[in-house]
UniProtKB/TrEMBL annotation:
One of its GO terms (biological process) is nucleoside phosphate metabolic process. This is ADP-ribose pyrophosphatase. One of its GO terms (cellular component) is cytosol. The keyword tRNA-binding does not apply. Keywords: Hydrolase. Residues 40-171 form the Nudix hydrolase domain. Its cofactor is Mg(2+). Belongs to the Nudix hydrolase family. One of its GO terms (molecular function) is pyrophosphatase activity. InterPro entries: Nudix_hydrolase, NUDIX_hydrolase-like_dom_sf, NUDIX_hydrolase_CS, NUDIX_hydrolase_dom.
Length: 181
């Protein structure tokens, strides 16, 4: 047993939506006291770093209602039940950018907000992009523009807080680390 482990005594689902479930757990702390934890359960997601033949990165620009602003992000999306992450990655790439690939390379996985959510994102990269002959229908409530940026331009958008989400900032950092090897 981990010396910091909190054991669940009781769990109550407060809300179950299309994307997340909110539960409140009563836990036993390592010192024997009890506390409450509000936890968001998420099915997980994928993100893709699409690199073009001329070494540009494809990003999507879209409005994010929780933040009340537009962000520049790498293509990403939620895992469907029972779906393998690489299938989700290819689907999201096609829906959001109009490109496809047959070569997805897994880079890493990471948690987005471990203090209150269990969401994990699986990060992939592809350097084998092909424009789809026919457009794939994406989510009907999703509106995006495509941007092609160099790594340096992406780093500037991080500084300018136009890239302001962890998955995309992490991807830009990861690319810089790969480039320095």
């Amino acid at each position: 047993m981990d010396k910091f482990e909190e054991r669940t005594i009781a769990s109550e689902t407060i809300f179950k939506g299309k994307v997340v479930k909110l539960q409140v757990d009563e836990v036993s702390l390592p010192d024997g006291k009890t506390s409450k934890r509000e936890i968001i359960k998420h099915p997980g997601a994928v993100a893709v770093i699409p690199v073009t033949k001329d070494n540009k990165i494809l990003f999507v620009e879209q409005y994010r209602k929780p933040l009340e602003k537009t962000l520049v992000e790498i293509p990403a999306g939620k895992l469907e039940p029972g779906e393998k992450p690489e299938i989700t990655a290819k689907r999201e790439l096609e829906e959001e950018t109009g490109y496809t690939t047959n070569e997805l390379t897994f880079l890493t996985s990471f948690y987005t907000s471990p203090g209150f959510a269990d969401e994990i994102i699986h990060l992939y990269i592809t350097k084998d992009l092909r424009l789809l002959e026919e457009e794939v229908a994406g989510d009907e409530d999703e509106f995006v523009d495509i941007l092609e940026l160099s790594l340096e331009e992406a780093e500037q958008l991080v500084k300018d807080q136009r890239i302001h989400d962890v998955k995309t900032a992490y991807a830009v950092l990861y690319l810089r680390l790969l480039e320095s090897k």
